[in-house]
Specification:
By secondary structure, the chain is an alpha/beta fold. It contains 14 helices and 16 strands. The chain binds 2-acetamido-2-deoxy-beta-D-glucopyranose (NAG) (3 copies). It comes from Musa troglodytarum.
């Protein structure tokens, strides 16, 4: 309540400031206009249409190994949760890196050399996260549903992802060693990051006659990771179930009725493990593309309090290999096409009368790792800022950009950790100013 009023005031002050600063000149370059026409912008700063989380800005870290390639380019380098930011070169060479990973890097000897130059105490990386104070980081991606955690009883054998064209997403099952999980958490604590962890939702599934995967989620390995995390005192803001398994799925799909039952199970294991602790994490799902029937069903079946956040993904520009990305990015009517997704989801939530809120859990614009010199360059800011504005108008509470680092759409350069242009964009977007921005109606 108080937060809402506060943010309304802040929103008012922000727009009031714009107003006091005089009419804002907007240069329109549409058909029929030549050069620059000054346009007056009137902002109604009194009526709130939506409120975002104070920490609206979020970015993702993914699992892709250096051998992940798209259209002949391998853009992930050492940006995976399994190999980014080793705490020291000694650690890189031994405990935190699996032997097979070292072998891969030796084959890519340039990378290997680089891994000795960079480490967790790399000030650029640490400060890049710190600067957002706090930055939400969502840890996940396609391979999250193929990773097991090196903990529990019996402890699984911990082996890395190995490239294998016959496997879903081109890699075998991988494993997160607990030594690596410790190291990541140490880094997140130092950087003040707020962590959302995407759990493997495919454990225990069988293929059903309609081609979807079914059978209940086997949560024993996930529960072991959550228990380990709580025992270590690591703060996790939210646990998200699965990646792109909703609707028609990417790689695999699971029915909404089964998924709802799995979310309810996740909620109960979290309740049990966090019993007596003051801070309870959020439960998020499904981290997939909006499918109205599927989303409507999971919302209704997880009511009233199993699912805190429904997460959806956005790749509205098509594949990274597309030669016309820049035209789409600079075409306002193309960009506006995505508003329908936000509107539909907002409608689903309001007509269900649920307390579940919406986040964009992953948005990279162009799928299959983006496109070098487009999704990592200045022009992509037209897409990114438009998305931040659009999402907040439709009451999206948090927006996670794919990626913080890695692929061709990182906010940071994968090899140097230096900011790409989009790194600076949230700072120029009013939602990041403070404390839950109120999106106001803007009349042109
Ligand atoms: C880690 O990186 C920092 C900055 O690049 C460097 O000063 C330090 O010596 C490195 N530490 C190790 C153990 O390599
Ligand atoms: C769930 O998976 C674990 C391994 O993580 C296995 O030991 C257990 O038997 C499985 N449970 C069921 C019900 O299949
Ligand atoms: C990232 O840095 C490398 C090395 O300086 C450079 O070759 C590459 O073009 C940079 N990427 C971007 C998107 O600027």
């Amino acid at each position: 309540m108080g937060g809402g009023v506060l943010s309304q005031l802040l929103g008012f002050f922000f727009w009031g400031f714009l107003w006091l600063a005089g009419p804002v000149a907007v240069y329109s370059g549409g058909p029929g206009t030549s050069g620059a026409d000054a346009v007056a912008v009137v902002v109604d700063g009194t009526a709130a249409i939506a409120v975002t989380d104070g920490d609206f800005v979020c970015a993702t870290l993914d699992w892709w190994p250096p051998e992940k390639c798209d259209y002949g380019t391998c853009s992930w380098g050492l940006a995976s949760l399994l190999n980014l930011v080793g705490s020291s070169s000694a650690c890189y060479a031994k405990s935190c890196m699996l032997q097979q990973e070292i072998d891969v890097l030796i084959r890519h000897s340039q990378c290997f050399l680089f891994s000795f130059m960079q480490n967790l105490s790399n000030p650029i990386l640490l400060n890049a996260v710190k600067a957002f104070s706090p930055l939400k980081l969502r840890l996940g991606g396609s391979l999250q549903d193929k990773i097991i955690y090196g903990t529990g009883d019996p402890k699984p054998q911990c082996t890395p992802f190995i490239k294998s064209t016959s496997e879903m997403f081109g890699f075998t099952q991988g494993c997160l060693p607990m030594s690596r999980w410790d190291e990541l958490n140490e880094f997140f604590q130092k950087a003040g990051a707020v962590i959302i962890f995407g759990l493997n939702a495919l454990n225990g599934r069988v293929t059903l006659s309609d081609g979807s995967l079914g059978g209940p989620w086997n949560y024993s390995n996930a529960a072991a990771l959550i228990r380990y995390t709580v025992n270590k005192g690591y703060a996790i803001h939210g646990w998200e179930l699965g990646n792109e398994l909703s609707g028609s799925g990417v790689g695999a799909r699971i029915g909404a009725d089964q998924y709802a039952a799995d979310v309810i199970n996740l909620r109960s294991i979290i309740n049990e493990i966090y019993q007596g602790l003051p801070d309870k994490p959020l439960v998020l799902a499904p981290g997939g593309f909006l499918d109205t029937n599927w989303f409507t069903e999971i919302i209704s079946r997880t009511k009233p309090n199993s699912l805190d956040v429904i997460t959806h993904h956005i790749y509205n520009l098509g594949p990274g290999v597309d030669q016309h990305l820049t035209e789409k990015i600079l075409d306002p009517s193309y960009l506006d096409g995505e508003a329908g997704t936000f509107r539909d989801l907002q409608r689903i939530l309001s007509s269900a009368g649920t307390s579940t809120i919406a986040w964009v859990g992953e948005a990279g614009g162009a799928y299959n790792s983006g496109h070098h010199l487009v999704t990592d360059s200045f022009v992509f800011s037209f897409w990114y800022l438009d998305q931040l504005g659009m999402a907040s108008t439709y009451d999206t509470k948090t927006y996670c950009r794919q990626s913080f680092i890695g692929g061709n759409y990182g906010l940071l350069n994968t090899t140097t950790f230096r900011p790409n242009p989009d790194y600076y964009r949230p700072a120029s977007h009013p939602t990041s100013f403070c404390c839950g921005f109120t999106a106001n109606s803007i009349v042109y």
